Amino acid sequence: MTGMPHPDAPTPGASTGGAAPGTPAPAPGTAAPAPGATAPAAPRRRADVLGIVAVILALVGLLPSLIVFLIGIAPEMQMIFWLLIVTLPILGIGGVIALILGVIGIIVGVRRGTKIVWSIIGVVLGILMLVPLGILYLGPSM
Fold first, then answer.
1. Residue 41 or 115, more confident
2. Cβ-contact 101, 29 below 8 angstroms
3. Where does residue 140 fall: left (phi above 0), alpha (psi -120 to 50 degrees), or beta otherwise?
4. Which end of the chain has the smaller Cβ count within 10 Å, N or C?
């Protein structure tokens, strides 16, 4: 038994190319990857940061007025509507900022070729935030 080679041992004169015993040798002309090396990652698409910021600012500006309005719907709580005096300017400023950031995000996203969904949502929320102010100022005269 001492004269017989082990089944996993390489045959004399055969090159394994650094592979583990029992694995086939790489084809001639192909370079094996270096140990520990990984393939380069595909480049990530850039996130629509301006759109995300526009949506966050729109929600921060929209939530106080929405909460006051929803609480004021209850008949016992109608005296809370005076808080709209405080929250309507927040709504207007937040709407203008969200609208501007959303439009800039759409322009930048189209030029880069990235997704612009968050920017479109920011523009829509900005417009919806400005509608109550427009109705308040233009409502009875129309």
1. 115
2. no
3. alpha
4. N
